[in-house]
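Task 17 of the worksheet. Students: predict the tertiary structure of the chain below and write it out as C-alpha cells. Keep your answer in the requested format; marks are given for formatting as well as content.
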Amino acid sequence: MFYRLSGVHHADYVSDSRIYKVPADRNLAVFILVIGLAAPFIIPSLYLNSYILPWLIWSAAALGLNLVTGWAGQLHLGYAAVMAVGAYSAIHAARFGVPWEFALIIGGLASSVIGSLFAFAALRVKGLYLALTTLAMQFVMDWVLTHSPAITGGSHASLQSPTLALLGQPITSDAGYYYVAFGWCLMVTIFMLNLKRSALGRALVAVREKDYAAAILGVNSFYYKILAFATSSFIAGVSGALLVAAFFFLAAPEQFSVAVSIQVLAMVIVGGLGSIIGTYFGVALILLVPGIVNGIFATTSANLGLQVDVETLAHMPNAVYGALIVIILLIEPLGLGKLYGNIRDYLMIWPFDQFRK
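Model answer:
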C-alpha cells in the first residue's frame, strides 16, 4: 500500500537508472535523513554518543568492506589492519600540525597504499586462499603495531588523539562529534548508492561473478580488483581515523586486532553481501544488540527475583545473541537486507497479493 508503482513510468534510460525508482523509497530516505539531522535534539546525549555515533562510523567502515567483498567478491579478513593504518597515519599527521581535513585524507591514502598490497594477493589467489592470505597480512600488521614504539608507543601503550577540528573550529561537543560521523556516513552511503548504477559497479559485479568471463568481455579484472581494494581501504582508513578521533579519543593496537576484522566481516555477512541498507542492519545487530540483550537479562532477572550468578549473567546474553544470528541466517541466508527486501516486495502488491498467479 505504501510501495505503489502506479503512475511510475520509465520512458528513458535516465529515468530507469534513478537511485530511487519508487517514490516511497525516496520518501523513506528523506525521512531518515531528517531524523538523522534532528537526532542530537531528540536523543539523549548518553545514547547518542554510546550507540548512534559508533553505529554510524562502523556502518561507514562496513560499507567499505562490502565494496570489496559484496561487490567485487574478494574475501577480506584483514580489514582492521587498514583501519589501523588510517587511524595512526591521521593521528600522527594531526600531531605534526596538519589540519584534520588533510590528516583524514592522509590516513585514507595511507590505507589505500596498504590495501593495494592486499589486492596483489587477490590477483594470485581467490576464495578461502585469499581469506587466509589477508588473515596472514592482518597478523603481520598486528605484529608491526605491537613492536613499533615509534608508531603506536608499544604493545601496551596508547596514542592520544589531538582534538578534532574541522575548518579551524575545534569540535568538543557531543553534537559536533555526532554530525562529523553522520556526515562521513552519509558521504559513503551516497557513494555506494551511485556505485550500484555506475559502470564501475557493474564491472565489479562482473569480476565477482566470474573474473575469466569478465576478462573475455573486456573487463580488466587486474585493474578493478586493485581499485576495489584501494577504494575500500580509503573508506576504512578515514573511518578508523574518525573512530579514534571522535569516539575512542586514543588509539591502541587491540582496537584493530584480528577479532575486529572478523567482527566487521560478520556485520557485512549478516546484513547481506552487496546490500547497503542491510549493512546498516548488520552493524546494528552485531554492535548494539549484545548490550540490549544484556540489559534485558539483567532487568528481567532482577524483577523476577532470580538468583543468577555473575558468570551466567555475563555469558547468557552472548548465547542468545549468537542464536539470534543463526536464526536470522536460517530464515534468510542472504542476510537482513534481503529480509527487508522481501517485506518491501510483499508490500508492493499488498493487499492484492491474493490475485497473483
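Marker's comment: The chain has 15 helices and four strands. The beta strands are 159-160, 165-166, 169-170, 250-251.
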